[in-house]
Design goal:
Layout: E1 8-18, E2 20-22, E3 26-27, E4 39-45, E5 50-51, E6 57-64, E7 72-76, E8 91-95, E9 102-109, E10 115-125
Antiparallel strand pairs: 1-10, 2-9, 3-9, 4-8, 4-10, 5-10, 6-7, 6-9
């Protein structure tokens, strides 16, 4: 799997003590950036994610036609756990379609303590090696 820097939401992001993370927006320049080709959201940890307890982690992509995300559409993926974000694993999910010119990544952690530590790369890839790395 190869990340294109132009399609990355997080690039070596060091997340500390957060219950929610919203990336900067990607501007595709068009409403149909992949012309019907299946694309994937990939989140690749560089170190094991740590958190108090084992909170539910919601990963979603938000799409809009305007940079302010006033009228946005959200595509949520299956609930994840911190074990899904261990070093060497890739959280990878197909994106059903890209319904807007702009996109941003939202990660929300259940509970009050949030993520204690995470080092993440995240972006859109076209050809993942393996959607989920086997344990």
């Amino acid at each position: 799997m190869i990340f294109d820097k132009e399609l990355m939401f997080l690039d070596d992001a060091n997340i500390q003590n957060e219950t929610s993370v919203t990336s900067d927006a990607l501007d595709f320049g068009t409403n149909r950036p992949f012309h019907g080709r299946v694309a994937y959201l990939a989140v690749a940890p560089k170190a094991d994610m740590t958190a108090t307890d084992d909170p539910d982690i919601t990963v979603a992509l938000e799409f809009a036609d305007e940079a302010e995300f006033i009228n946005s559409v959200t595509a949520a993926f299956p609930i994840a756990k911190k074990a899904d974000f261990e070093s060497g694993k890739v959280f990878c999910q197909p994106i059903p379609f890209i319904p807007g010119r702009f996109a941003r990544l939202n990660i929300t952690v259940g509970g009050t303590n949030g993520i204690a530590c995470a080092e993440l790369d995240a972006g859109i890839v076209l050809d993942p090696e393996d959607p989920i790395v086997a344990e």
